[in-house]
Amino acid sequence: MSDVDLKGLFLKHADTLRRYLLRKVRDPQLAADLVQESFLRLAQKPSSERIDNSQGYLYRTASNLLIDHIRQEARRKTDSVPHEALAEIEDEVAGLEAQAMAQQQRQALKQALAELPERTQQIFRLNRVEGMTHAQVARHLEISDSSVQKHLAKALAHVMQRLREGDVTPSDE
């Protein structure tokens, strides 16, 4: 196609083709790019290939280019999820990891406590789990306050030692 013919086609159809694409994409820059690419493809057609309807060719080419563009954008789309949502997912994963670790620690604590004498376990549970003071535990079990403190010290020392040794694992239950 000669430059004169191409220029004439451009002057005649470029504006209407751009408006047509603009209605479809609502992006003036993209519409202009697609118009230019359509005319570029028409200009690159070998002269041996005759085009009977240049306007139809331009519209069909522009429509196909638009479809290709939309498909490529869909494939490339990485920001379809806002960053805040990704942060929430990361927070959930971190929360799940923390929950799993806390569960493992509870199991390890439970196992270490199971190794203690029954009375020491009972005092530990009343004080640390149920929240009773030393005096309340002493009254409840009818023992001295110092006895409660000794049992708690024994329980805490044993638990800390077992956890430091790493001998206590959740699967040892």
**Sheet with the most strands?**
none
Strand content: under 5%
CATH superfamily of the largest domain: Winged helix-like DNA-binding domain superfamily/Winged helix DNA-binding domain
Count up the domains.
2
CATH first level of the largest domain: which class?
A: Mainly Alpha
How would you portray this structure in words?
There is one protein chain. The protein is an all-alpha fold. The chain has two domains: 3-76, Rna Polymerase Sigma Factor, Chain: A (Orthogonal Bundle); 83-172, Arc Repressor Mutant, subunit A, CATH 1.10.10. It has seven helices and no strands. The radius of gyration is 38 Å and the shape is rod-shaped. Residues 9-76 form the RNA polymerase sigma-70 region domain. This is RNA polymerase sigma factor. Residues 106-158 form the RNA polymerase sigma factor 70 region 4 type domain. Belongs to the sigma-70 factor family. ECF subfamily. It comes from Pseudomonas brenneri.
Spell out the blueprint of helices and strands:
Layout: H1 3-25, H2 28-44, H3 54-76, H4 83-114, H5 118-129, H6 134-141, H7 145-165
State the main characteristics.
173 residues; mainly alpha; Rna Polymerase Sigma Factor, Chain: A; Arc Repressor Mutant, subunit A; 2 domains; 7 helices; disordered C terminus
Short description:
With 173 residues, this protein is mainly α. It has helices at residues 3-25, 28-44, 54-76, 83-114, 118-129, 134-141, 145-165.
